Amino acid sequence: MDFAWTEQETAFRDRLRALLADTLPDDWERFSQHGPASPALTKYAESFCGTLAEQGLLIPHWPVELGGQGLDPWHQTILAEEMWIAGEPRGGQYMNVNWIGPTLIRYGSPDQQARYLPPIAEGKALWCQGFSEPGSGSDLASLRTRAERDGDTYRVNGQKIWTSYAGLADTCFLVCRTSDDRKRGISILLVPMDTPGITVRQIPSLIGEGDIHEVFFDDVTVPVTARLGDEGQAWEIIGYSLTNERLGIPRYALARAALDRAVAVLKEQGEFDGEAVKIEAAHAAALTEAARMASYAIVDRRAKGEAIGAESSSARFATVMAERRVCEFIVEYLPEALADAHPYLKMHHQRGIVAGIAAGAAEIQLNIIATDVLKLPREPR
Amino acid sequence: MDLALTDDQVAILDAIDTLTRPYAGASLHEAGFSLPDAQLDRDLAEGGFLDIGFDPDLGAVSAALVVERLARLPQTVEAAASALIRPLLGDDLPRPLCLVEEGRTTRPVRFLREGATVLIVGPSSVSAFTATAAQVRAEPEALYGYPMATLLDVPTDRTPHAIPADEVLTRWRIALAAEAAGLLAAALDSTVAHVTDRQQFGRPLATFQALRHRLAEAQVRANGVRWLALKAAATLGPGDAALAALHAQESARATVYDFHQFFGAMGVTLEHPLHLWTYRLKALIGDLRGRGGQALAAAEALWG
User: Fold this and answer.
1) CA dist., res. B298 & res. B78, Å (int)
2) Is residue B207 assigned to a domain?
3) Closest Cα in chain A to B235
4) Distance between CA atoms of A230 and A224, rounded to whole angstroms?
5) Is B74 part of any domain?
6) Partner B contacted by A294 (CB < 8 A)
7) What residues are paired with A213 via a beta bridge?
8) DSSP string, B190-235
């Protein structure tokens, strides 16, 4: 067992920090409060991701033949941590490079790869994922958005909801129903968002401007060539995508960074001298570090080419616990942060509310742990 | 980073499993509140398992793995302090090694008996003495799952140890976290087995979500305690150690009553081993001034 970073990994992290320090604008912390999906940050992300691409830091974990450097999951984790700690200046593009690109690499046709991979690799694409529906959240397989085959096209009708980035995305990774079979009747279509019949409506939210949307599909015509993989293959493809994204955003890293920042502010104000505040801060730190180590245990498996297993749900839940405890600490000891006194802490707090909701509800993670880690008999359905 | 066990660590843990297998079927009917086992203690000591921390190639991580594994047994032996703190003191000190915080010497002490080495750990100094019969009052009715005794007298002519007290405290916290990790894992496994077998309303208790989610949260905690303990053993950093011990004590607090709750009345019997793990966890909760003590130590190490 070795818990130390290699020299190469440390140098990689240092390089990212230096780049962030050099590149981000002076008012970045206030700016990043708009949220990764806001028009302002989306626009900024285009130039920032272009800079990353030029320096070989946008897709370093992709295969060399596709423009990456084949760096291992530890480097991918370091990249994700540093970007998220910084307020995610890649905007919604983090999703492209983390799992949409790798999924297209695995399942995309040559034409799809030629069309979609270069813009992702250059930092010029923005995707949204059409998963949740009004009646299908955690129970994704109940989704009803339907794609009816009509010769060489599909006619898509239905509604998606909570869709991040939809307002500005150029392409949708759309999960829809092509037959009535619950799981084997689901397919994936890659749909340009300017296709006639698509209507996007933003939903005002706590988590930043432009983050969640409703997306309506009314007789949207999509060529069969836009289907990713075979008809009915979506469940398998989503499973593969999740192996790339199951750990999700490294929220533990921002939570710890926000906690450290909050403590620094309190010390500066002479308010970090009582036992109560120190005890609360330490409890929060214990949770961020427990989540970090649980996550690293999964990264280690990925780095060795092993299946990540259901323990990734344990790491996810640990992260939810950490995120909430840090948010609670800030509210209790630096209430002015949520007004506007400390933009970085406000940014953390805005994003923290969805830790247990986005990318799979915390209760679903607990179900997975119960069934697949603890091997408890399943609940009756 | 490489978080897999080394070949040596796999071999050590396999050897412990082989050595302890005959003890698994021990009768609990005469066990009382704790289950010390002198033969197991001798077997482990003779096998060198408690001296692994002396080997620089194996180090504190391997010692912590040994402590964690042994803590899963219903029997108890004094392993944590011997495996993780004795390497700072020398291998000629008689075992068991009993840890006592200066200023809190009237509290019950785990494994204390005549002939034990008592290590008094102060804020700035470390000293030891060998306990005499007159200095010890056994506490056979103590609920804590360990053999406990009270120190009646702390001699002034103790043997000083020229090692930083901070280093001892750090290793104490790592030992506590490693032991708690094993206890939490064993209590969780035991509870999982019970709720899987036990049927009510025509189906296993484990199929009720009210229990499933709380057990899943216990798994998240047990997993976190184990990783923080191992990381702290690797870095030997005071901050890592304090966070590991804090998470261990907080997780013990958060889970112990749930484990008993899910066992119903079976969990309050002495014929089931659950209490041996949970009441040991309760003993560890009080170490080093409890969660507040670890939290303040962590805050000092992290933020000054």
Assistant:
1) 26
2) yes
3) A3
4) 10
5) no
6) yes
7) A202
8) HHHHHHHH-EETTEEGGG-HHHHHHHHHHHHHHHHHHHHHHHHHHH
Amino acid code (one letter) for A337: A
Query: Does the distance separating the beta carbons of B195 and A1 come in below 8 Å?
Result: no
Whether B83 has a pLDDT exceeding 90, the answer reads: yes
Please answer yes or no on whether B215 and A317 come within 8 Å at the CB atom: no
A166: left (phi over 0), alpha (psi -120 to 50) or beta: alpha
Range of the domain at B273: 165-303
Task: Check B302 against A285: CB less than 8 A apart.
Answer: yes
| Shortest Cα–Cα distance, A70 to chain B (Å) | 18
Maximum C-alpha span of chain A: 72
- Name the more confident of A360 and B97: B97
CB burial of B257-277 (b: ≥16 within 10 Å; e: otherwise) equals ebbbebbeeebeeeebbbbbb
Tell me whether residues B294 and A378 touch, CB distance under 8 A: no
Q: Is the peptide bond before A335 cis (omega within 30 degrees of 0)?
A: no
Judge whether A47 and A32 are in contact, CB under 8 Å. Answer: no
Say which CATH number the domain at B263 has.
1.20.140.10
pLDDT exceeds 90 at position A245: no
Rounded to an integer, what distance in angstroms lies between the CA atom of residue A180 and that of residue A144? 9
A129-232, CATH topology level: Butyryl-CoA Dehydrogenase, subunit A; domain 2 (2.40.110)
How far does B251 lie from chain A, in Å, by closest CA? 10
Tens-place pLDDT, residues B139-170: 999 999 999 999 999 999 999 999 999 999 99
Number of domains chain B is built from: 1
Per-domain residue ranges of chain A:
7-124, 129-232, 246-373
Torsion over CA of B153, B157, B163 and B164, rounded to 10 degrees?
60
Q: Which of B209, B224, B246 sits opposite A318 (nearest CB)?
A: B224
Q: State how far the Cα of B183 lies from the Cα of B203, in Å rounded to an integer.
A: 28
Q: Establish whether domains A7-124 and A129-232 are of one fold.
A: no
CB contact (8 A) between residue B292 and residue A275: yes
Classify residue B136: in a domain, yes or no.
no
Contact status of B295 with chain A (Cβ, < 8 Å): yes
A27-50 in b/e form (b: 16+ CB < 10 A) is ebbebbbbbbbbeebbebbbebbe
- Are B171 and B60 a contacting pair, CB within 8 Å? yes
Q: Which fold has domain A246-373?
A: Butyryl-CoA Dehydrogenase, subunit A; domain 3 (1.20.140)
- DSSP secondary structure string for all residues of A65-131: GGTS----HHHHHHHHHHHHHTT-TTTTHHHIIIIIHHHHHHH--HHHHHHHHHHHHHT---EEEE-
pTM, whole model, 2 decimals? 0.96
CB A3 within 8 A of CB B234: yes
Q: pLDDT category, A246, cuts 50, 70, 90?
A: low
Contacts across the A-B interface (CB distance below 8 Å)? 161
Residue in chain A nearest B236 by alpha carbon: A3
**In sequence order, which residues have a C-beta less than 8 Å from that of residue B193 and are 6 or more positions away?**
none
pLDDT one-digit tens code per residue, A155-183: 999 999 999 999 999 999 999 999 999 99
Instruction: Tell me whether 0.90 is exceeded by the ipTM.
Output: yes
What is chain A's alpha carbon radius of gyration, rounded to the nearest angstrom? 21
Residue B61's closest chain A neighbor by CA? A1
Three-state SS at A188: strand
Given CATH 2.40.50.100, say whether it is the number of domain A7-124. Answer: no
| Percent of chain A's residues with pLDDT above 90 | 85
What would the 3-class secondary structure string for B64-98 be?
HHHHHHHCCCCCECCCHHHHHCHHHHCCCCCCCEE
